[in-house]
Specification:
3 domains; Abi_system_AbiD/AbiF-like
Protein backbone atom coordinates (compact mmCIF):
# COMPACT_ATOMS: atom_id res chain seq x y z
CA UNK A 1 0.00 0.00 0.00
CA UNK A 2 1.42 3.46 -0.90
CA UNK A 3 2.53 5.85 1.80
CA UNK A 4 0.02 8.59 2.73
CA UNK A 5 0.46 11.72 0.61
CA UNK A 6 2.11 14.73 2.23
CA UNK A 7 1.18 18.31 1.43
CA UNK A 8 3.85 20.84 0.48
CA UNK A 9 4.35 22.14 4.02
CA UNK A 10 4.75 18.58 5.32
CA UNK A 11 7.27 17.85 2.57
CA UNK A 12 9.31 20.89 3.56
CA UNK A 13 9.17 19.87 7.22
CA UNK A 14 10.43 16.39 6.31
CA UNK A 15 13.36 17.87 4.40
CA UNK A 16 14.10 20.16 7.33
CA UNK A 17 14.11 17.26 9.81
CA UNK A 18 16.47 15.34 7.56
CA UNK A 19 18.92 18.24 7.58
CA UNK A 20 18.44 19.73 4.12
CA UNK A 21 20.08 23.16 4.22
CA UNK A 22 17.63 25.80 3.04
CA UNK A 23 14.51 23.86 4.00
CA UNK A 24 14.49 25.73 7.31
CA UNK A 25 13.57 29.05 5.69
CA UNK A 26 11.14 31.08 7.80
CA UNK A 27 7.50 30.40 6.92
CA UNK A 28 6.13 33.26 4.84
CA UNK A 29 9.56 34.45 3.73
CA UNK A 30 10.44 34.84 0.06
CA UNK A 31 12.76 31.82 0.32
CA UNK A 32 10.00 29.69 1.84
CA UNK A 33 7.46 30.71 -0.82
CA UNK A 34 10.02 29.99 -3.52
CA UNK A 35 10.68 26.53 -2.08
CA UNK A 36 6.95 25.82 -1.97
CA UNK A 37 6.60 26.87 -5.60
CA UNK A 38 9.56 24.73 -6.64
CA UNK A 39 8.10 21.63 -4.99
CA UNK A 40 4.63 22.26 -6.40
CA UNK A 41 5.92 22.77 -9.94
CA UNK A 42 8.34 19.84 -10.04
CA UNK A 43 7.08 17.34 -7.43
CA UNK A 44 8.90 15.98 -4.40
CA UNK A 45 9.37 12.59 -6.05
CA UNK A 46 10.97 14.00 -9.19
CA UNK A 47 13.32 16.26 -7.22
CA UNK A 48 14.32 13.46 -4.86
CA UNK A 49 16.40 11.99 -7.68
CA UNK A 50 18.64 15.03 -7.36
CA UNK A 51 18.90 15.44 -3.61
CA UNK A 52 19.46 11.72 -3.05
CA UNK A 53 22.98 12.47 -4.29
CA UNK A 54 23.52 14.33 -1.01
CA UNK A 55 21.89 11.81 1.33
CA UNK A 56 23.67 9.16 3.40
CA UNK A 57 22.32 5.99 1.77
CA UNK A 58 18.70 6.44 0.67
CA UNK A 59 18.70 3.02 -1.00
CA UNK A 60 18.98 1.56 2.51
CA UNK A 61 16.52 4.05 4.02
CA UNK A 62 19.24 6.34 5.44
CA UNK A 63 17.71 9.54 4.10
CA UNK A 64 19.43 12.20 6.19
CA UNK A 65 21.56 14.74 4.37
CA UNK A 66 25.33 14.62 4.73
CA UNK A 67 25.84 17.73 2.57
CA UNK A 68 24.05 19.72 -0.10
CA UNK A 69 21.50 22.49 0.02
CA UNK A 70 18.38 23.66 -1.76
CA UNK A 71 20.54 25.99 -3.85
CA UNK A 72 22.91 23.18 -4.87
CA UNK A 73 20.10 20.81 -5.82
CA UNK A 74 18.36 23.51 -7.82
CA UNK A 75 21.62 24.15 -9.65
CA UNK A 76 21.91 20.43 -10.48
CA UNK A 77 18.28 20.35 -11.60
CA UNK A 78 18.73 23.36 -13.88
CA UNK A 79 21.99 21.92 -15.23
CA UNK A 80 20.24 18.65 -16.04
CA UNK A 81 17.49 20.51 -17.88
CA UNK A 82 20.09 22.27 -20.01
CA UNK A 83 22.03 19.05 -20.58
CA UNK A 84 18.91 17.25 -21.81
CA UNK A 85 18.38 20.06 -24.29
CA UNK A 86 21.90 19.65 -25.70
CA UNK A 87 21.63 15.86 -25.77
CA UNK A 88 18.20 15.97 -27.41
CA UNK A 89 19.61 18.19 -30.13
CA UNK A 90 22.49 15.80 -30.73
CA UNK A 91 20.31 12.69 -30.57
CA UNK A 92 18.00 14.14 -33.21
CA UNK A 93 20.97 14.44 -35.57
CA UNK A 94 22.12 10.88 -34.82
CA UNK A 95 18.64 9.40 -35.13
CA UNK A 96 17.82 11.02 -38.47
CA UNK A 97 21.22 10.06 -39.88
CA UNK A 98 20.98 6.48 -38.63
CA UNK A 99 17.51 6.07 -40.16
CA UNK A 100 18.74 7.48 -43.46
CA UNK A 101 21.88 5.37 -43.71
CA UNK A 102 20.17 2.16 -42.62
CA UNK A 103 17.40 2.68 -45.17
CA UNK A 104 19.93 3.45 -47.90
CA UNK A 105 21.99 0.31 -47.38
CA UNK A 106 18.96 -1.95 -46.91
CA UNK A 107 17.33 -0.56 -50.07
CA UNK A 108 20.42 -0.71 -52.28
CA UNK A 109 21.75 -4.03 -51.01
CA UNK A 110 18.58 -5.98 -50.21
CA UNK A 111 15.72 -4.15 -51.91
CA UNK A 112 13.17 -1.42 -51.06
CA UNK A 113 10.69 -3.83 -49.46
CA UNK A 114 13.10 -6.39 -48.00
CA UNK A 115 12.55 -4.95 -44.52
CA UNK A 116 9.09 -6.60 -44.55
CA UNK A 117 10.47 -10.06 -45.37
CA UNK A 118 11.07 -12.39 -42.44
CA UNK A 119 14.05 -13.88 -44.26
CA UNK A 120 15.83 -10.51 -43.94
CA UNK A 121 16.19 -11.01 -40.20
CA UNK A 122 17.82 -13.47 -37.83
CA UNK A 123 15.35 -15.89 -36.25
CA UNK A 124 16.52 -15.14 -32.73
CA UNK A 125 14.79 -16.23 -29.53
CA UNK A 126 14.80 -14.09 -26.39
CA UNK A 127 16.60 -16.09 -23.70
CA UNK A 128 14.36 -15.04 -20.81
CA UNK A 129 10.90 -14.91 -22.39
CA UNK A 130 11.29 -17.35 -25.25
CA UNK A 131 9.74 -14.81 -27.64
CA UNK A 132 10.83 -14.88 -31.26
CA UNK A 133 12.39 -11.45 -31.78
CA UNK A 134 11.95 -11.51 -35.55
CA UNK A 135 8.20 -12.02 -35.21
CA UNK A 136 8.00 -9.23 -32.63
CA UNK A 137 9.94 -6.90 -34.93
CA UNK A 138 7.66 -7.53 -37.90
CA UNK A 139 4.64 -6.94 -35.64
CA UNK A 140 6.20 -3.67 -34.43
CA UNK A 141 6.88 -2.53 -38.00
CA UNK A 142 3.31 -3.28 -39.03
CA UNK A 143 1.88 -1.56 -35.98
CA UNK A 144 4.04 1.55 -36.41
CA UNK A 145 3.02 1.88 -40.06
CA UNK A 146 -0.67 1.29 -39.27
CA UNK A 147 -0.58 3.99 -36.59
CA UNK A 148 1.22 6.51 -38.77
CA UNK A 149 -0.73 9.61 -39.80
CA UNK A 150 1.95 10.69 -42.26
CA UNK A 151 0.58 11.49 -45.70
CA UNK A 152 3.52 9.86 -47.44
CA UNK A 153 2.63 6.55 -45.77
CA UNK A 154 -1.06 6.92 -46.67
CA UNK A 155 -0.05 7.65 -50.28
CA UNK A 156 1.53 4.22 -50.68
CA UNK A 157 -1.17 2.40 -48.70
CA UNK A 158 -4.02 4.01 -50.66
CA UNK A 159 -2.29 3.14 -53.92
CA UNK A 160 -2.02 -0.49 -52.82
CA UNK A 161 1.75 -0.25 -52.82
CA UNK A 162 4.31 -1.55 -50.37
CA UNK A 163 5.84 1.29 -48.36
CA UNK A 164 9.53 1.45 -49.39
CA UNK A 165 12.06 1.28 -46.60
CA UNK A 166 13.24 4.88 -47.08
CA UNK A 167 9.70 6.08 -46.34
CA UNK A 168 8.97 3.47 -43.68
CA UNK A 169 11.90 4.41 -41.44
CA UNK A 170 10.46 7.92 -41.12
CA UNK A 171 7.33 6.47 -39.52
CA UNK A 172 8.93 3.81 -37.34
CA UNK A 173 9.98 4.46 -33.76
CA UNK A 174 13.70 4.75 -33.10
CA UNK A 175 13.42 1.61 -31.01
CA UNK A 176 11.94 -0.33 -33.93
CA UNK A 177 14.61 0.99 -36.29
CA UNK A 178 17.35 -0.07 -33.85
CA UNK A 179 15.86 -3.58 -33.68
CA UNK A 180 15.78 -3.76 -37.49
CA UNK A 181 19.50 -3.09 -37.50
CA UNK A 182 20.27 -5.53 -34.70
CA UNK A 183 18.37 -8.39 -36.34
CA UNK A 184 19.55 -7.95 -39.93
CA UNK A 185 20.80 -11.30 -41.16
CA UNK A 186 23.11 -9.71 -43.73
CA UNK A 187 26.11 -8.70 -41.62
CA UNK A 188 27.67 -6.94 -44.61
CA UNK A 189 24.83 -4.40 -44.54
CA UNK A 190 25.21 -3.93 -40.81
CA UNK A 191 28.94 -3.41 -41.27
CA UNK A 192 28.41 -0.79 -43.98
CA UNK A 193 26.14 1.14 -41.64
CA UNK A 194 28.59 0.93 -38.73
CA UNK A 195 31.59 1.93 -40.84
CA UNK A 196 29.68 4.94 -42.16
CA UNK A 197 29.77 6.14 -38.53
CA UNK A 198 33.46 5.18 -38.21
CA UNK A 199 32.55 2.31 -35.89
CA UNK A 200 34.45 -0.79 -36.98
CA UNK A 201 32.20 -3.46 -35.45
CA UNK A 202 28.51 -3.81 -36.26
CA UNK A 203 28.00 -5.40 -32.85
CA UNK A 204 29.51 -2.34 -31.19
CA UNK A 205 27.28 -0.11 -33.31
CA UNK A 206 24.27 -2.15 -32.25
CA UNK A 207 25.14 -1.63 -28.57
CA UNK A 208 25.71 2.11 -29.05
CA UNK A 209 22.38 2.64 -30.79
CA UNK A 210 20.52 0.49 -28.29
CA UNK A 211 21.84 2.63 -25.45
CA UNK A 212 21.09 5.88 -27.28
CA UNK A 213 17.49 4.76 -27.78
CA UNK A 214 17.12 4.60 -24.00
CA UNK A 215 18.76 8.02 -23.64
CA UNK A 216 16.43 9.48 -26.26
CA UNK A 217 13.41 8.13 -24.41
CA UNK A 218 14.73 9.52 -21.12
CA UNK A 219 15.20 12.96 -22.64
CA UNK A 220 11.85 12.87 -24.45
CA UNK A 221 10.08 12.21 -21.14
CA UNK A 222 12.14 14.85 -19.30
CA UNK A 223 13.83 12.18 -17.22
CA UNK A 224 16.92 12.72 -15.12
CA UNK A 225 20.30 12.21 -16.82
CA UNK A 226 22.52 13.65 -14.06
CA UNK A 227 23.45 11.09 -11.38
CA UNK A 228 21.74 8.34 -13.38
CA UNK A 229 23.24 4.90 -13.90
CA UNK A 230 22.14 3.90 -17.42
CA UNK A 231 20.09 0.72 -17.67
CA UNK A 232 21.96 0.01 -20.90
CA UNK A 233 25.51 1.35 -20.85
CA UNK A 234 26.80 3.16 -23.92
CA UNK A 235 30.10 1.76 -25.20
CA UNK A 236 32.72 4.45 -25.73
CA UNK A 237 35.28 4.14 -28.52
CA UNK A 238 38.80 3.59 -27.16
CA UNK A 239 40.36 6.75 -28.72
CA UNK A 240 37.77 8.84 -26.85
CA UNK A 241 38.77 7.52 -23.43
CA UNK A 242 41.20 10.27 -22.51
CA UNK A 243 40.59 10.10 -18.74
CA UNK A 244 40.28 7.26 -16.23
CA UNK A 245 38.35 4.50 -17.97
CA UNK A 246 35.99 4.16 -15.01
CA UNK A 247 34.15 7.37 -15.88
CA UNK A 248 32.98 5.90 -19.18
CA UNK A 249 31.53 2.65 -17.85
CA UNK A 250 27.83 2.64 -16.94
CA UNK A 251 27.79 6.43 -16.56
CA UNK A 252 25.96 9.36 -18.17
CA UNK A 253 29.41 10.63 -19.19
CA UNK A 254 29.63 7.76 -21.66
CA UNK A 255 26.47 9.08 -23.31
CA UNK A 256 27.83 12.62 -23.43
CA UNK A 257 31.14 11.54 -24.98
CA UNK A 258 29.56 9.37 -27.68
CA UNK A 259 26.80 11.81 -28.63
CA UNK A 260 29.35 14.61 -28.86
CA UNK A 261 31.68 12.51 -31.02
CA UNK A 262 29.01 11.15 -33.35
CA UNK A 263 27.38 14.50 -34.04
CA UNK A 264 30.73 16.10 -34.88
CA UNK A 265 31.50 13.24 -37.28
CA UNK A 266 28.10 13.60 -38.94
CA UNK A 267 28.40 17.37 -39.27
CA UNK A 268 32.04 17.27 -40.27
CA UNK A 269 32.93 20.03 -37.82
CA UNK A 270 33.07 20.76 -34.09
CA UNK A 271 30.19 23.23 -33.75
CA UNK A 272 28.11 20.93 -31.61
CA UNK A 273 30.91 19.77 -29.31
CA UNK A 274 32.18 23.34 -28.91
CA UNK A 275 28.76 24.48 -27.68
CA UNK A 276 28.29 21.44 -25.45
CA UNK A 277 31.81 21.72 -24.02
CA UNK A 278 31.25 25.39 -23.18
CA UNK A 279 28.09 24.43 -21.30
CA UNK A 280 29.90 21.65 -19.43
CA UNK A 281 32.86 23.89 -18.59
CA UNK A 282 30.48 26.49 -17.16
CA UNK A 283 29.11 23.80 -14.83
CA UNK A 284 32.34 21.95 -14.03
CA UNK A 285 31.36 21.56 -10.36
CA UNK A 286 28.45 19.32 -11.40
CA UNK A 287 30.30 16.92 -13.69
CA UNK A 288 30.91 14.36 -10.94
CA UNK A 289 27.21 13.54 -11.18
CA UNK A 290 27.87 12.48 -14.78
CA UNK A 291 31.20 10.74 -14.28
CA UNK A 292 30.60 9.14 -10.88
CA UNK A 293 26.84 8.59 -10.45
CA UNK A 294 25.90 7.17 -7.06
CA UNK A 295 23.94 3.95 -7.04
CA UNK A 296 21.01 5.08 -4.93
Amino acid sequence: MPKPAKNILEQIELLKVRGFTGADATAGSAEHRDLMRWLMNNSYYRLSGYWRYHQKNPHAGENWFVDGSVAEVRAAYDFDTGLRSYLSEGLAVIEVTFRSRLAYFVATELGPDAYLDAATYIDQVHKASGDRLRDQLLDDIGRDLDRSKERFIAHHVNAGETVPVWAAVEALSFGTVSKMYALLADTAVRTKVSKSFEVSSYRLMESIIRSLVTLRNTCAHHGRVWNRIPDIACPVLKPLKVESHGIYQQTPWGWVVMVRHMVDRIHGDARYSDDLNAFLDANANLLDGLKYPRNH
